Amino acid sequence: MGAPVVCAPMAIEAAALRGRLGSARIVRTGVGPARAGVAAARLAAGGPRPVLVAGVAGALDPALRPGDVVVASEIRFTDFRAPVPIPTAGPLATALRRTGMTVHVGPVVSSPTVVDGVRRTELGREGSLAVDMESGWLAAAAAGGPFAVVRTIVDTPAAPLLRPGTAARGLTALRSLRRAAPALRDWLEVLGPREVVLAEPRSFCAGVERAIDIVDRALDRYGAPVYVRRQIVHNAHVVRRLTERGAVFVQELDEVPAGATTVLAAHGVAPAVRAEADERELSVIDATCPLVAKVHAEVKRHSGRGETVFLIGHSDHEEVEGTIGEAPEAVVVVENEAMAHTVTARDPGRVAYAMQTTLAVDEAERIAEVLRGRFPAISTPRRDDICYATTNRQRAIRAVAADVDLVIVVGSPNSSNSRRLAEVAGRSGTAAHLVDDVGEIDLAWLRGARRIGVSAGASAPPELVDEVVSCLSALGPVDVTTTTTGTEDIVFTLPKEVS
What is the mean pLDDT of the segment spanning 152-181? Predict the structure, then answer.
């Protein structure tokens, strides 16, 4: 792969960046598609190389202001040519936001002529953020190598190019371009070949797939809106997609109109919630994961025998809240080893323990070991409460973490099983980070990381992992392998209301 090049169409853009981008060569390409095409052909002749296009542009979205930064997620054209995707836009935008500037990520249109008036409005309505006259043609300069586009805004729909104040707005845009230089340098410095090791199993488990399928089928069968108490699963992307389909997520049932179709989330609920649903005559569909339901049944069985139940888990997690509700007078939450050393029971000879299904296996077992040592008569679960998916994903990420420089776990921050994956990887001595999606990857993590492990929590859609791999592949040649520690073929049946 050739040396990186920064393409700046105008001399003033090149001057704003010169001396600020390390060893990268800055090439003034000229304004417009013809000159951009000539420059691209000349650069492409040397084979694949990283190319960063940096300069100013006009806003299409009326929300943008002079000096705002646009990072292109793809380049579109005003004719029928296919868009050029740019998978590294998210991490580059994250680096730019750390400079304190206002940064937008989205499509940039390349046009052979200046765009204004009605056409400008039309392009904005199609979802593009900004327009320039070079980026689309300069994409060929990379010849398949890494490519990125960063543009700072000069003119806007409310203040077109040929209006008083253009010069002042131009200076604002150039100052932003200069401020962007450290982040652009970060992008240039992490380019290069890598190995990506995928942990398998990863992403959706059977319980999550079942819960999401329940909401989708309820929308198909009963129509929108379908109300869902709390997040159906702990993932922002899943919730957003279902919201767009017509699901309405509420915290409590008193927000649901009487008689409405209502789904109870995968994490389970207390009996009091079900009673409230009956009182309000809601049409309830239960999406509780069968493995969570098993823990509820254990707690009811033990508490029914007069035993104190030590529930190993996190007191603020929805699953634990629902489990406590089965027998609030009998359940004692044990969050860590220190608590396990101090908790008490009404009758030390009549105790049992159960576990939140999404815990880190090693930590939960240490807590259970303390309880077994203190209460020799303690009743243990018939089978491990921690669900198969949590166990399998932790085993896989542990195997991967032992042989990589960096681990990236995809999952939302409120997902217990996703957080535990990152923690398990971290305890292996490897730097590990949890990201909601590719846009949260910090370029600084990638500096010096040539082997990167990737996994995803049981509530994270698999396409989010694909986007991470695509981003890493767009930073340089990537060899993708998979470390498999097990297979999963479990399928849970759907409730009769949607089957």
Answer: 88
Cross-strand bridge partners of residue 428: none
Q: How many CA atoms lie within 13 A of 357 on its CB side?
A: 26
pLDDT at 382: 73
pLDDT value at residue 159: 84
Our CA angle for 321, 327, 333, nearest 5°, is 50
Helix, coil or strand: residue 352: strand
Q: Which residues are annotated as catalytic? A: 319
264 vs 270: CA distance, rounded Å:
11
At 165 the pLDDT is: 64
> Mean pLDDT, to the nearest integer, of 44-70?
97
Could you tell me if 319 and 358 are in contact, meaning their C-beta atoms sit under 8 angstroms apart?
Answer: yes
Query: What's the pLDDT score for residue 166?
Result: 76
Query: What is the rounded distance in angstroms from the CA atom of residue 415 to the CA atom of residue 238?
Result: 12
**Dihedral (CA of 178, 179, 185, 187) sign:** negative
Lookup: tokens for 467: 């986007």
347-357 pLDDT, tens digit each: 999 999 999 99
Q: Which amino acid does the sequence have at 132?
A: D
**Token pair listed for 84:** 């050029």
- Number of neighbouring beta carbons within 10 Å of residue 150: 27
Among 88-97, 221-230, 375-384, 447-456, the range scoring the smallest mean pLDDT is 375-384
Alpha carbons 263 and 23: distance in angstroms, whole number = 57
In the numeric block, the tokens 């082997």 are attached to 451
Q: Is the dihedral of CA 39, 42, 44, 47 positive or negative?
A: negative
333-341 CB contacts, 8 Å cutoff, 24+ apart? 334/310, 334/367, 334/371, 336/363, 336/367, 337/366, 337/367, 337/370, 339/367, 340/310, 340/367, 340/370, 340/371, 340/374, 341/370, 341/374
CB 448 within 8 A of CB 192: no
